């Protein structure tokens, strides 16, 4: 009899534990699938995806993946991109710009940009790929141009009685070396690169804003504009808040009533992720950046 009671108690404990674990799993699933910001299985067809582009732009991978994800979701009718960025790397900026254009073409969905405090240089470049641009009256935008800058430490080397030794295959192989002043040939070389990238910037703004290139060039001397000035110069479409941009996106998408807003799940990193190199994007430096000290950037400084 005692043995039977022990067995019964054991089964009760095991069954209760299994039931408790099952309930916990159900609760966890409920949290995941009812989270309006990240639910993939929502049956609502009145969804807007809200993406963010903040800080200096050094890599396009995460943003482009998010854009592809929402492009494949039938319930997502449009995308609102909140930009708060002074710009960044030339290639990363152009990749995001092209990704938005491709998203619009392939999915047929609208993209509306909302500018926060700053959407300058590369940040503005990316905004020009959208269907419509909103900015606050005091938003800093514009800064259409290219910059490359670095330090020259030649005097420091000489002070330390050190000599920079270079063996090269051509006169421009070490162009921009920080150990000596630029030659006239190097100045012309770098200026030609800057001019080429600048021309690409102007052409893409003209295409996105449907403006003559001459008109864009007249505005593209590197200066920034307030949102109000940008509106007067046709660099943006509307003066409005983030909520105004959401309302406009919903209207463009034909959504009646309040749209369901979806946001990408923020990645959480552990110490192990940092050790294994899976959290590089979250670090204050980019481990994959070129070792060269010269970087060409669409960046407001």
General description of the model:
Helices cover 43% and strands 18% of the residues. The chain is α/β, with parallel strands linked by helices and 301 residues long. The protein has a single domain (37-299), classed as 2-enoyl-CoA Hydratase, Chain A, domain 1, CATH 3.90.226.10. Strands 1, 2, 4, 5, 6, 8, 9 and 10 form an eight-stranded mixed β-sheet that branches. A three-stranded antiparallel β-sheet has the order 3-11-7. Helix 4 (122-127) links the parallel strand 4 and strand 5. Helix 2 runs parallel beside helix 3 (90-107) and helix 6 crosses helix 7. The protein is globular and about 80 Å long. The termini are far apart. The model is unreliable at 28-42 and 284-290 (pLDDT under 50).
Give a short account of the largest sheet.
Answer: 8 strands, mixed
- Helical residue percent? 40-55%
| Average pLDDT rating | 85
Write down the Rg: 26 Å
In short:
The chain has 301 residues and is an alpha/beta fold. It has a single domain, classed as Alpha-Beta Complex (2-enoyl-CoA Hydratase, Chain A, domain 1), CATH 3.90.226. Helices cover 43% and strands 18% of the residues.
Write the layout of secondary structure elements.
Blueprint: H1 2-34, E1 47-54, H2 61-71, E2 76-85, E3 87-89, H3 90-107, E4 110-120, H4 122-127, E5 132-135, E6 140-142, E7 147-148, H5 154-159, H6 184-209, H7 213-219, E8 224-226, H8 227-232, E9 238-239, H9 242-252, E10 260-262, H10 271-276, E11 296-299
Parallel strand pairs: 1-2, 1-10, 2-4, 4-5, 4-6, 5-9
Antiparallel strand pairs: 3-11, 6-8, 7-11
Helix pairs in contact: 2-3, 6-7
């Amino acid at each position: 009899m005692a043995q039977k009671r022990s067995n019964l108690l054991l089964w009760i404990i095991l069954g209760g534990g299994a039931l408790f674990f099952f309930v916990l799993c159900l609760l966890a699933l409920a949290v995941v699938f009812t989270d309006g910001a990240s639910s993939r299985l929502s049956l609502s067809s009145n969804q807007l995806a809200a993406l963010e582009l903040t800080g200096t732009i050094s890599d396009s991978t995460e943003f482009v993946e998010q854009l592809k994800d929402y492009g494949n979701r039938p319930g997502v009718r449009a995308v609102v991109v909140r930009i708060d960025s002074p710009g960044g790397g030339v290639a990363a900026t152009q990749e995001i710009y092209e990704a938005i254009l491709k998203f619009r073409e392939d999915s047929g969905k609208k993209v509306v940009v909302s500018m926060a405090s700053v959407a300058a240089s590369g940040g503005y470049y990316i905004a020009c790929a959208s269907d419509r641009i909103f900015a606050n009256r005091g938003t800093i935008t514009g800064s259409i141009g290219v910059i490359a800058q670095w330090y020259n430490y030649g005097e420091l080397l000489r002070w330390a009685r050190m000599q920079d030794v270079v063996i090269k295959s051509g006169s421009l192989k070490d162009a921009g070396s920080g150990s000596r002043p630029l030659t006239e040939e190097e100045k012309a070389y770098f200026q030609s690169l800057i001019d080429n990238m600048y021309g690409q910037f102007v052409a893409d703004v003209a295409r996105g804003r449907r403006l003559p290139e001459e008109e864009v060039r007249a505005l593209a001397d590197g200066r920034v504009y307030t949102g109000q000035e940008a509106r007067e110069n046709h660099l943006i479409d509307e003066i409005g808040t983030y909520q105004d941009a959401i309302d406009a996106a919903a209207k463009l998408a034909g959504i009646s009533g309040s749209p369901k807003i979806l946001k990408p799940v923020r990645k959480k990193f552990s110490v192990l992720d940092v050790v294994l190199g899976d959290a590089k994007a979250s670090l204050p430096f980019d481990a994959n950046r070129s070792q060269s000290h010269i970087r060409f950037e669409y960046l407001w400084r």
